[in-house]
Amino acid sequence: MAVIEIRVELKKGVADPEGKNTRKTLEALGFEGIADVKSVKVFEVDMDLPADEAVKAGEEMCRKLLANPVIQNYSVTVR
Hints:
Layout: E1 2-10, H1 17-28, E2 40-47, H2 51-66, E3 72-78
Antiparallel strand pairs: 1-2, 1-3
């Protein structure tokens, strides 16, 4: 059994309105020194597979559903 973590984030240069709005709101709440905020999706998937096969399956999940390769990067790691 393996637990994989899939991290999906926007590529550099792609607008991140959620991150920008979060930064503005944090600053409005009085938080200082925030240089940037980026939104990231994290999926944790429990699999009944050996670690190496689970990573391959996670990468396939990203290619088929979880990530848009045009605007997003992803990484798959075993936890």
